[in-house]
UniProtKB/TrEMBL annotation, chain A:
It comes from the Bacteria. Residues 17-95 form the 2Fe-2S ferredoxin-type domain. The lineage of its organism: Bacteria, Pseudomonadati, Pseudomonadota, Alphaproteobacteria, Sphingomonadales. The gene is fdhF. Keywords: 2Fe-2S, 4Fe-4S, Iron, Iron-sulfur, Metal-binding, Oxidoreductase, Repeat. Gene3D superfamilies: 2.40.40.20, 3.10.20.740, 3.30.70.20, 3.40.50.740, ADC-like domains, Dimethylsulfoxide Reductase, domain 2. One of its GO terms (molecular function) is formate dehydrogenase (NAD+) activity. Its EC number is 1.17.1.9. NCBIfam families: Fdh-alpha (TIGR01591). Residues 95-134 form the 4Fe-4S His(Cys)3-ligated-type domain. SUPFAM superfamilies: 2Fe-2S ferredoxin-like, 4Fe-4S ferredoxins, ADC-like, Formate dehydrogenase/DMSO reductase, domains 1-3. Coiled coil: none annotated. This is Formate dehydrogenase subunit alpha. In the C-terminal section; belongs to the prokaryotic molybdopterin-containing oxidoreductase family. PANTHER family: FORMATE DEHYDROGENASE H, RESPIRATORY NITRATE REDUCTASE.
Amino acid sequence: MTFTREKDFGTPEKTGETVSLTIDGQPVSVPAGTSIMRAAAMVDTAIPKLCATDSLESFGSCRMCLVEIEGRKGYPASCTTPVAPDMVVRTETDKLRKLRRGVMELYISDHPLDCLTCSANGDCELQDVAGSVGLRDVRFGYEGASHLDGCKDESNPYFTFDPAKCIVCSRCVRACDEVQGTLALTVDGRGFASKISASQDVGFLPSECVSCGACVQACPTSALIENTVIEKGTPDRAVVTTCAYCGVGCTFRAEMRGQDLVRMVPWKEGKANHGHSCVKGRFAWGYAQHRDRILNPMVRDSVDEPWREVSWDEAIARVASEFRRIQNAYGTRAIGGVTSSRCTNEETFLVQKLIRQGFGNNNVDTCARVCHSPTGYGLKTTFGTSAGTQDFDSVEQADVILVIGANPTDGHPVFGSRIKKRLREGAKLIVVDPRRIDLVRSPHIAAAHHLPLRPGTNVALLTAMAHVIVTEGLVNEAYIRERCDTDAYAEWAAFVSEPARSPEAIEDLTGVPAADLRAAARLYATGGNGAIYYGLGVTEHSQGSSTVMAIANLAMATGNVGRPGTGVNPLRGQNNVQGSCDMGSFPHELPGYRHIADSATRALFEQDWAVTLDPEPGLRINNMLDAATDGTFKGIFIQGEDILQSDPNTTHVAAGLAAMECVVVQDLFLNETARYAHVFLPGSTFLEKDGTFTNAERRIQRVRKVMEPKNGPDGKGYADWEVVQRVAQAMGLDWHYTHPAQIMDEIARLTPAFAGVTYDLLEARGSLQWPVNGAAPEGTPTMHADHFVRGKGLFVVTDYVPTDERTGPRFPLLLTTGRILSQYNVGAQTRRTANEAWHAEDRLEIHPLDAENRGIRDGDWVSLRSRAGETTLRALITERVAPGVVYTTFHHPDTQANVITTDFSDWATNCPEYKVTAVQVAPSNGPSEWQMQYRAQAEQSRRIEPAEPAE
Amino acid sequence: MEGTGAMMSTDERLAYMAGQILRNFAVKGQEAAIAATVDHIVQFWDPGMKARAVAMLSDPDAALPEDVRAVFARVQKDSAPA
Ligand code: SF4
Ligand code: SF4
Ligand code: SF4
Ligand code: FES
């Protein structure tokens, strides 16, 4: 692929009746509402433009795009003039050329003419337009040129604003408003003196700006430009790939110079992101080249010894022989593995295949256990499939958006921007969250209702909403009769109608005023299309699965499943949580969510893999650790996960790992878990491999290799799937994949929902939403369209059972945890990028009242103590949290928020209860003893001995 | 459960987990709750966990609540070779 910019049609796409017209003698048919500019671009007539770009509504300020229309006076701007039937348009006449040249002269007289040394040279729209209008001379002189020289804003680590190069087209301002929805930029002053500024001229970094880069992408000149382009020059080729950070699954053009990544530009054709992205995907890819990255395989006999670098052959042989030795000594079920939600579908599929086929047991689990396992259980039980019901575009047709336990503007920023856009268009918002998340109140957006419930009372609150809907007669009876199990409905309706489940009865428990709860329930039931989006604030509870089912009940009762604008949608954390679950990462399920006890499914795999499979479910991660402590589980293969940092109760995890004889970690960095590892297999980044990720909308998208894997002696590296294949071969399995496409073929062969998926089809369609099969050869944007996948939708009675994690005199506060925009999960990648500029440490949010009671001032070090452990961090005093509730993120190993979290977990799936921990907070002098010890031990366990010289 | 979250032994945890599942099904009535819990354990627990649960039945030191004992007894019956 050679480098070309993505085509810019000038104004956004419209849908409407077809209108026919003539442009420069060519007949054109386009949807009504389309601009003349876009219609012309569709027949490859590029009308010069500066202030228009197709990601933004037209503005009509530059007067460059003038055209002549037969029978109309004057020279209308083609970007703001819609087409009309039988219109006759001319885009090139002597008069137009003269007018455009005049406008161009004005622009250029105020613009430095240092094109040759400008970082956008060759990739500048101003340059292009000057060329296309035939500008040869500037009658006004160039005096205006230098009045802004030397005023560059370089505060943002990823891009530079140079006002001298700015033509004040306001594309950046509009991108920030319309696409991102942050409204950080303004045009100050007028005429030649007008200037773009970030939040009243404070500079980009300290401003409201969230560094999404939409303005940089919209800028036609080098006024806003990526620092990497300044450093490396413009790219010469582009490869489309998928972001490896979050479950939105933005697709990007990775723009390259040779093997060097110059910049990531969100792909306009990407169905999940439509040309937008957040700071992580666009800018935070520097970790791929970070010096901390481990590039050689390493082994050691005990975790007290320093690491020894070895060849790939030696490392792989070691893994195979250790695992076989352990199985001979302790039994087939004494080893297991963990798949990664960061790796591709193909890699995840291979790891679970290695375990089921090669290890001969089902001891496979995934980090999705700690985030969305209740989604799988809850949605499968009620609807029949373990996934969200909609595509992201569906939100454009939602009238009421109910966000529960999710913080989309931080956790799923690009989708957060879509929600905001829909809210600015008039949709209503209900937020159920203990904390006042940004969505509750931000520019031009105010939630109709924010229900700040006490952590741990989700089920009670949702059941009370159901109470209102049922007792006030707001249910959609026709829908229920047609699509749901009516007996189960009757039982459920009777249950929720009991007076004990009314909003008034639970007011003290949840802390939510009954009147607000009633109003919110009425709005959801009667406000038109109701769409529910939820996150970890729903799942990471002792009743996570019940909460998911309670949500599903609400949606069914109001008829809000099965068409665009409605639905129940989990917002997934990591990029491939959906995929890793689909691929059979849970110990009781083969790929496609089929129980291991189902002999027909097992037979299918047994035949394909030529083995007999263990029909019993395997161990979950926490049970593997228990078994390790008890001495029955001895070896583990962990791909791309840091369970010591991401799993609850760090002390328990550490004890389990320490009790094992062979811990194998495959990752980019020596993560926390690797402190207990005996073999380290260096991983490859998403830039270094082919494969697919599946995002939160069930959308399967290609990941494409843009550079060679760096992990291996002499630069001879391997993609993660190749390493797993080598381990499998060393353990005697007959695997011979030469490309991930063949793995996908196997997945399709064995999994009905993937039956129609091939790399060729992905290439042709860009992406596919499963199920893709005979009934839906093009994939399925909306699930349960005619009927529920399980047949009849199943109402499940969800009784509120309080968590055993209780506050009391010793631990009077409730801690809940979350994430922020610039960091990702445990932060292994983002901490190794300039994103640290926004979030250098985890802080404890505490209400002013609670802080004052304890003599804590903003910024003070405080100790945070629970029944499980203690850590220290600095306080942030804020009214975002209610009195009695404290909140922190968990991005930094120094904080180790999971030292605090307990072993309590969801009753059905053991998803840990991260969102509720009883704690006490007190002033402190600095890091706790535990943290100091931990740091010392961490350093000790990371020593690497240089390899012995080869003979 | 003041103070026990972090320090359960594996046996205690298994009994605790069974009790927690029971409580979430309790609204169905005791008989149905026991049946649903047994079904859940059969579907989701690995053989080692089931074996431990069953072994607790004959361990005089295991303090099992009556309903949890009933569940484990049923698991034992269901997994006994026919
Ligand atoms: S910074 Fe770029 S996009 Fe913004 S007004 Fe200036 S030239 Fe236009
Ligand atoms: S980077 Fe994003 S948030 Fe920041 S000013 Fe640009 S568009 Fe706005
Ligand atoms: S982190 Fe998520 S929202 Fe940000 S670019 Fe990547 S996929 Fe998109
Ligand atoms: S492009 Fe139409 S007025 Fe600027």
